DNA sequence: GCGACAG
DNA sequence: ATCTTGTCGC
């Protein structure tokens, strides 16, 4: 395994989880990427309503060949429900083992959710980026916090998401006539990098390919353990 | 107290 | 997140 299995209690209380986020936020490093990332890992989860069985999926997208070159998944039962601001408590337990099963080391991690555009500046992308100490960015479809001006209509147009006078993310138009996505750095990356990797892997779609592929895989895994009605 | 609220 | 048909636009 290239990436380690991180041991931790996932049955924390919301209060304990927020204390943990405070610690993790202090470890986040916002900086320019050391090198342009060729292999981008996209991660996502899928689960049925009312169920705690979560499918975590990770794909490695080769930006040079424009294809998935590795993938891994895991199924985990997590007691923690989805709580706005505590998404990592819900999804990380399934994503960690999926990453640990990956046979290829990615250059950057991309998550379906926010990075620093989070009330505690510690969204899912920060959480995962810090525990693995790898460059990470978050791309969400909805705003969690902060405010921003209207986004231009052209692909590539963006408006910074401001939280307490700080630009913590960017609302980005990745496709015409589609709502913008929210990109923010998670760890060992900066706002410019989050914006760039998002736009560079969109290929005419609203969401970047690593996330589209991870979503597809996570859904396939979930269906594999979901009883079908005949 | 009231609204907001990633997936 | 997931449950779902048709439908508008490129």
Q: TL;DR?
A:
With about 230 residues, the protein is of the alpha+beta class. The protein is built from five helices and eight strands, in the order αβββαβαββββαα. Strand 2 and strand 3 form a beta hairpin.
Topology record:
Layout: H1 14-27, E1 39-47, E2 53-62, E3 67-77, H2 87-100, E4 108-111, H3 124-132, E5 136-140, E6 158-163, E7 166-172, E8 181-187, H4 191-200, H5 209-225
Parallel strand pairs: 1-4, 4-5
Antiparallel strand pairs: 1-2, 2-3, 5-8, 6-7, 7-8
Helix pairs in contact: 1-3
The chain binds two DNA strands through residues 44-50, 54, 82-85, 87, 90-91, 111-114, 117-119, 123-124, 138, 140-145, 176-177, 182, 222.
Q: Specify the biggest β-sheet.
A: 8 strands, mixed
Structural class: alpha+beta
Given the C-alpha coordinates, what overall shape results?
A: globular
Per CATH, which architecture? 2-Layer Sandwich
- Count of helices? 5
CATH superfamily: archaeoglobus fulgidus dsm 4304 superfamily
Cα distance spanning the termini: 39 Å
* Radius of gyration over C-alpha positions, nearest whole angstrom: 16 Å
> What is the H/E order?
HEEEHEHEEEEHH
What number of domains? Answer: 1
Give the CATH class: Alpha Beta
Q: Kindly state the percentage of residues in helix.
A: 25-40%
For the residues shown, what is the average pLDDT?
95
Please give the number of β-strands: 8
**What is the CATH third-level topology name?**
archaeoglobus fulgidus dsm 4304 fold
């Amino acid at each position: 395994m290239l990436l380690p299995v991180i041991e931790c209690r996932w049955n924390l209380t919301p209060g304990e989880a927020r204390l943990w986020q405070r610690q993790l936020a202090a470890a986040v490093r916002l900086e320019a990427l050391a090198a342009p990332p060729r292999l981008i890992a996209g991660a996502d989860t899928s689960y049925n309503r009312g169920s705690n069985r979560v499918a975590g999926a990770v794909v490695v997208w080769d930006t040079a060949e424009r294809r998935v070159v590795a993938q891994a998944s895991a199924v985990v039962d997590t007691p923690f429900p989805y709580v706005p601001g505590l998404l990592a408590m819900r999804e990380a337990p399934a994503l960690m083992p999926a990453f640990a099963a990956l046979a290829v080391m990615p250059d950057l991690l991309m998550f379906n959710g926010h990075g620093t555009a989070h009330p505690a500046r510690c969204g899912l992308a920060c959480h995962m980026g810090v525990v693995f100490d790898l460059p990470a960015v978050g791309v969400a479809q909805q705003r969690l916090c902060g405010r921003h001006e209207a986004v231009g209509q052209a692909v590539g147009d963006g408006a910074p998401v401001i939280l307490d006078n700080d630009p913590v993310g960017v609302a980005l138009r990745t496709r015409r006539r589609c709502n913008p996505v929210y990109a923010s750095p998670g760890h060992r990356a900066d706002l410019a990098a989050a914006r760039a990797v998002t736009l560079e892997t969109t290929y005419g779609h609203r969401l970047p390919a690593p996330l589209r592929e991870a979503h597809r895989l996570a859904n396939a895994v979930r269906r594999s353990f979901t009883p079908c009605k005949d």
